[in-house]
């Protein structure tokens, strides 16, 4: 739960709602200074085409405020069976920094046709007290869940990954940690795994 609480209480977040079939995207800022950035929305498949359509909008938000920043008409969104195979990536940038993001789905998770994500993880680097790990996905992955025999928590968990996704995470280690055994204990699962 603490991973999701961290996301929900971030200083800047994006939210969405469907109104009469149109998609409304809002930005919420708890900052005490003005937020200037750009919202990018991408329609993508779970397997196949990573970028079908794109929308963008400049965002200028006053301190401690909420604003509806983009409306995508229903006519531009997927219909019928296409909703089973597609989703929207919503990303909010502040210059080149990713300030907030979320995915928008058109159907309940149980009705989505998700492919095998083909997940992998590798050790990118290590220091005396931390492992730097790279998680990769060939296809879209919903709710990537990483477990290991470590008593410590990964810096991120229960996250989504796009086609050809890459996510860099960390894991604290103790002085006497057997790195080889720890790496061998790591398991990657996703919503796709729970259906098998």
- One letter per element, helices H and strands E, the order comes to HEEEEEEEEEEEEHEH
Would you identify the regions where 5 or more consecutive residues have pLDDT less than 50? Answer: none
Oligomer: single chain
| Proportion of strand residues | over 45%
Please state the overall shape, judged from the principal axes of the Cα atoms. globular
Number of beta-strand segments = 13
Gyration radius from CA atoms, angstroms? 18 Å
Count of domains: 2
Annotated CATH homologous superfamily of the largest domain:
Immunoglobulins
Which strand order do you get reading across the main beta sheet?
4-3-6-7
CATH topology of the largest domain: Immunoglobulin-like
Structural class: mainly beta
Text of the CATH class of the largest domain: Mainly Beta
What percentage of residues falls in helices of 4 or more residues?
under 10%
Largest sheet: 4 strands, antiparallel
Average the pLDDT over all residues and give the rounded result.
93
The name of the CATH architecture of the largest domain is Sandwich
N-end to C-end Cα span: 24 Å
Structure overview:
The protein is mainly β and 196 residues long. It folds into two domains: 2-111, Immunoglobulin-like, CATH 2.60.40; 119-194, Immunoglobulins (Immunoglobulin-like, Sandwich), CATH 2.60.40. The chain has three helices and 13 strands, in the order H-E-E-E-E-E-E-E-E-E-E-E-E-H-E-H. The protein has helices at 2-8, 179-185, 191-194; strands at 12-19, 22-29, 35-45, 53-61, 65-72, 86-94, 97-105, 119-126, 130-137, 141-147, 159-161, 165-172, 187-189. It has a four-stranded antiparallel beta sheet with strand order 4-3-6-7, with no helix packed on it. It has a three-stranded antiparallel beta sheet with strand order 1-2-5, with no helix packed on it. The chain has a three-stranded antiparallel beta sheet with strand order 8-9-12, with no helix packed on it. The protein is globular. The relative contact order is 0.16. The model has no long low-confidence stretch (mean pLDDT 93).
